Amino acid sequence: MGAAIAWQLALRLDPHDEPVVLLEKQELAAGSSGRSGAILRQQYSDRVLAAMARDSLRVYTGFERATGRYIGFVRMGVLTLAGPVQREEQELLRRNVAMQQELGIEVELLDAEGIQRVSPGIAVREGTLAAFEPSGGGVDPLRCVEAFAALARENGAATRVGVRVESIAIENGRVRGVQTDDGFIEAEEVVVAAGAWSRALLERAGIALPLRAVRPEQYFKQMLEGPITPEDLRARDEVEARFAWTKPQLPTPSHPVLLDLESNFYTRCQPHEGRTRVGRMDYSEDAEIADPDMLDENVSEKYVEWARERLEERIPAYRAKKDAGTAVGLYTLTPDAQALIGPRREAAGLWVVAGFSGHGFKLAPSVGEGVAQMVCGQPVSAFDPEFFDPHRFDGKSGAAWGRAFGL
Ligand SMILES: Cc1cc2nc3c(=O)[nH]c(=O)nc-3n(C[C@H](O)[C@H](O)[C@H](O)COP(=O)(O)OP(=O)(O)OC[C@H]3O[C@@H](n4cnc5c(N)ncnc54)[C@H](O)[C@@H]3O)c2cc1C
Fold first, then answer.
1. Does 362 contact ligand 1 (Cβ within 6 A)?
2. Residue-range domains of the chain with CATH
3. Pick from 374, 368, 362: which is nearest to 407 by CA?
């Protein structure tokens, strides 16, 4: 988010009069972003989110062509599937698809036969329903954050990696800048997009935010390779011809991204790593983290077995593939699983952009644009600022916490 915002701010501000500085304490994408599945889906039930996902997907899709920078974009389709007895989930998918089609999103409902047609390797029972977005896919999150930061620099921003913000200086109700471990930086506007670290940083400035960090476990198998459709192959060839000098030869995914509401998992091929990721659709069982700098990287055998079983049951060809590692992630949650984005009333010039609750990567282009519009005092067209109001939980300390990222 920080890199996307810095890029969009740099496009709008004069580097001499109003320089933009991106501060990163460790390395680019050191937090949630570098651990992300970076799936680009438009399957949401909120219009605001669906529209952002649509607009951001357009940016990701055209990014390599428009900027000449590689982000590992792969269009492989996204299939969100509800089982035969999941009446509520099926109803949700029907409503979502109708709303998304109104927004101009390319998405259709498929029955079991339709799912087989799109992806013959996916085992489904009669009565299964899915929403299919042929234009969805994923990116390589590391290369993507690096590309956003490079564009920020190209447009006049400075990126200072290895510089930690220790505190935010606030005087007479206005920010003055930030104290870092490499000196004080004066600033009229400070955007806190520090992921799981945002809560502690803002607490030190006397601002309490309803943010919790959890640690989702991830499991990987060797990727199942193979073309999806002739059309996908053609699109791939075009990109490869244009970026042959930067783009490594990537294997082709053999199935769409799958969000499986019946078995409560998601999976995506990650051609940039040659492996397939499996994660849980909810975070009710993820351990809470007190200090994101002390992340326990161990993944339980119980999770590995659960994930392997889910994947092999749904896509049986994976039985022939080997385990390909595990990882842990970092989600920064809010009670309603939507981010806090906007100005904080405690100090003029202070902005918060945090709490993406496990589904922010796909939205980053829209978030970057909308936050830059806000900070520059421009009309906000990238999203509805009210939806993300960072004060919406004020006085609601007993707010119930959700268990899953919204669909
Ligand atoms: C396993 C996993 C799978 C996911 N899958 C998807 C998906 O498929 N699709 C999707 O859309 N989203 C997905 N997400 C969510 C998405 O990755 C996050 O919402 C997004 O990366 C959040 O970005 P961020 O910039 O807010 O936080 P981060 O990426 O955590 O960035 C915050 C940065 O701030 C730096 N920082 C912190 N404190 C300081 C300080 N004091 N000074 C300087 N720098 C500091 C950190 O080092 C870090 O690099 C997934 C997340 C995980 C963990």
1. yes
2. 2-32+143-213+336-388 (3.50.50.60), 76-136+217-328 (3.30.9.10)
3. 362
